[in-house]
Amino acid sequence: MKGDRKNSKLYRIRFNITPPPLEEKPIENLICLNTRLTVPWEIWHKHFSHIAYSGLEKLLHLSLVDGLHIDLCSSKPDCIACMEAKLFEAPYGPASARDTKVGELTHTDLWGKYDKRSINGNQYYLLLVNNTVRHITIEFLKRKDESAQKVKNYIAYLKARGASLCAIRMDRGTEFLNENLKSWCHAEGIQLQMTALYSPSQNSIAEQMN
Predict the structure, then answer these.
(1) Between residues 114 and 102, the one the model is more confident about
(2) Residue 70 DSSP class
(3) Where are the domains of the chain?
(4) Distance between CA atoms of residues 27 and 23, nearest Å
(5) What kind of fold does domain 105-209 have according to CATH?
(6) What is the helix (H) or strand (E) element at residue 154, kind and residue range?
(7) Any idea what the Cα angle at residue 99 is, between residues 96 and 103, rounded to 5°?
(8) b/e string for 19-50 if b means 16 or more Cβ within 10 A?
(9) Does the reported pTM lie above 0.85?
(10) 103 and 165 Cβ atoms separated by less than 8 Å
(11) Residue-wise pLDDT tens digits, 165-205
(12) Rounded distance, CA 110 to CA 206, Å?
């Protein structure tokens, strides 16, 4: 058995079957299998150090690997090891109970910028979700700096209907972390609950609505 090392650091092996000497009993049943074996996507995924299925497809379609024969009809199941390895923080626990009165806590988030403008020229929208009844309010914006005024209008709307807003939960975007909105909320006795950096799950109510 001899083999040549290829550029891909694999070896192409050549087999020579030597017949036994005449004085020995000859081999009666000798079967040689020389066929192309197709392997499922999942097996190749593990053999190639858990490469993504899209990477395997690229290797196959561009013929970058000799002997890469894949069963195209096989499934592409999710790899538990890959999903666990990509988790960079522990998952959050279950959502807390809705122990607030109507209007006390509002979850908010800004979405945009969209590539296409709407008929009225808007490229953003401000999402406001009531914590208790999950009532949703959406305000469309042309610019991000309009967010502070829209939040003030929403609070005035609640006050006119007998609801008292006590806290607003939001991320640390510059549209919310500005002196205009912060000073106004402090003067009105409204608490700003800021989420931790790079932790959108803490603002899960608004993120799920997005």
Answers:
(1) 114
(2) B
(3) 34-85, 105-209
(4) 12
(5) Nucleotidyltransferase; domain 5 (3.30.420)
(6) helix 147-160
(7) 115
(8) eeeeeeeeeeeeeeeeeeeeeebbebbeeeee
(9) no
(10) yes
(11) 888 888 887 777 778 888 888 888 888 888 888 777 778 88
(12) 9
